[in-house]
Design goal:
Length: about 290
Amino acid sequence: MHRREAVFLLRKLLVAGGDGRMLRMARMLAGDGFDVSTLGLVSGDEKTAGIASAEALLFPYPFAVRDGRVPTLTGLTLHPEDVLESARPGAALLAGRGLEPCLEAPETHAKGFGLFRYESSPAFLERNAELSAEGTLLQAMGRTGDALPDMTVLVTGYGRFGRALAQKLRALGADVWVAARREEQRLAARSDEMRAVALSELPGLAGRMDMVLNTIPARVLGPDTLAALPKGTWLLELASAPYGFDRDAAAALGLSVEVLPALPARYAPQSAARALKQVSLELLREASL
């Protein structure tokens, strides 16, 4: 039997907001023959977006909505309610986090939108974690003056991102410690030949660390842990708000602090866009069924 080619019934797309990844993805989809317009990605595109005619609206990843607005590349103020009010009933919505509350309003709910989340694809999440880990290594190497085999590095969190990061660090020779909230995560880290501890053990271990890489979006590095870190230790914040530690308190203790958001977009925007395009095609195919 011949393999059937995928048929996309949804061809008219609007890429609404985001960063350079979304703009590159929009251009990739247009190159594949989709009818693509953008909103908040190219100067003046709000005049030609055609929200009402789009069969599918592609919102940003990881946050479709943050602080009540859709993030944009151009600085355009974009409220999700305004976009959804103009969108055609029954349109497919591809989105990261934060859009759900907007869909609960009676006037929006009545339009019968279909919501499809990028995070529903494990393959996409794994690829994004790998890109984030590679980007972190690029940022981390060379900051301390030591090569990785001479460093002791703490990774907080052992989800997809933390695991990919710890494995890459260990493969390059670093002495890697993992601090995780759940016992199953610590067991997974030990099975990967990492040193794994509970978060409550960090104050007693912090004094031996040369660098700390946080992947947990919660305050897991408290005052006792920060105070125990050697002065000059690098803390790289890789998680989203509320972040893993008090940055002002860390800096006041003589620690070197840097926040590194959206690493895939900064490190490998073309690869990140390609991953978003692939998951978008999967979701558009699902929405076409």
